[in-house]
Hints:
alpha/beta; 2,5-dioxovalerate dehydrogenase (NADP+) activity; EC 1.2.1.26; 7-stranded mixed sheet; 2 domains; oxidoreductase; 14 helices; 6-stranded mixed sheet
Amino acid sequence: MQYPQLKLFINGQWLDAGSGGTRDLNSPLDESLLTQIPLAGPVELNLAAESVHRGFAIWKKKNAHERYIILRKAADLMRERSKEIGEVLTMEQGKPLNESIREITLAADITDFQAEEAKRLYGRDVPTRLPNIISQNVIRQPIGPVAAFAPWNFPVNLTVRKMASALAAGCSVIVRPDIQTPGCAMLVVQCFLDAGVPADALNFVIGKPSEVSDVLINNPLIRKVSFTGSVPIGKVLGEQCARLVKHFTSELGGHSAVIVCEDADIPYTIAASVTGKFRNAGQICTCPTRWFIHESKFDAWVAEFVEKTKQIKLGSGMDKDTEMGPLAMKRRLETMQELVDDAVAKGATVLTGGHRVGDKGWFFAPTVVTNVPADARLAYDEPFGPIAIVEKYSDLNEAIEKANSLPYALAAYAFTTDAMKQHVLGQELEAGMVGINHFGVSQPETPFGGWKESGIGQEMGAEGILPYTEVKLISVSTP
Ligand code: NAD
């Protein structure tokens, strides 16, 4: 399969080049050159903002049912093209092809759900206290043109969460994929255009991340920004939006804790933990990272977990039996090594992995570490990669306290068959999503979002469309 020719979609036209020059896109598998990326510069970015401003006037006039029909068609096209798009995703990001295809079909399900949800953006009529006011209608209207900044770890899913929800609400949108994963996002944008989203309602730009965000946030025509990425960048963009009083939704990663109680189903917990940790090479914001295992089970649990971790098959995402691909970028490989080396220097023990694999491609061995001291970066910096930390606990309250101790609060997990503990852990773990006895907290029908520094607002579920709307009161009086 050939990597597709990358283009920008601006002002209703596919463009082969932009004024921002080009940049190499390299394969995570073998570092070979996949293509040259055309980059939009300020001129095209401002044109894109004008385009979605015009597109908003057209798209917002379509009623929810009309938008629903178009978005459902886009979802079907994604399903039809899932293999083709999935191959591009794997080429540029590295994950196994079956995970890529699953990502695309899930993105189609998210689109379906948000399209349906648009039909349920109900208003309400509030009873009046004044004799001459005859109605007080509270309605929701689309917020306006949106700038959607997506990352590289789930480049289709996380693009579609933003694009489909914005369009479902009646907003127009500029999609900016990560610079490592523009191809699959471009093919998904094509599905939405082919389904009938008007050209000006959807623009697609690739560019230098800070330039794209500076230009689009500062353009007065953009009314909302949605960002998924790291905490430091989220803070910068949030500050820029706050200064201009623009709406901002952010999803900024996590450092998820997993509490394994003494009554947990141990073989099930270990099997779930291996898959949960190393899927997508651990490059998942809800990825479990810090295990707190009851002391009575710790030694046996860790021995089996390490054994299973060693068996994970690394390789090309295109090979059917590959379980874990390379990391998506060279800098992620460097970060993994820095985190492990720093932890070891401060007293941590590596139980398996802890190093690069091979010298071509960005593979890092699935890694398990223990005795990580609180001052090691790994203890408080999100690894966002294939590193698991295992520690023992004796008192459940102490484990909960440790789980809640970081500024991150996206997802948290616990394994226990005791109903009372399930209740307590569900209530006490500080996170936007708590999974009890499983890691599957990211579903099209359920809200996804973090507390504390993990972000502001939600995507997906009934909550996912609301950030793309404004509330309006229409109050009518007799003359
Ligand atoms: P990074 O901070 O360099 O970039 C993170 C994301 O932000 C990337 O997608 C990048 O394109 C984008 N970005 C960077 N500068 C930007 C700017 N000025 N304006 C707009 N977007 C900008 O980190 P990285 O090395 O790419 O990824 C690792 C870190 O990012 C991890 O620590 C992880 O927390 C975070 N991350 C989180 C998610 C998530 O799903 N929450 C996804 C990807 C990355």
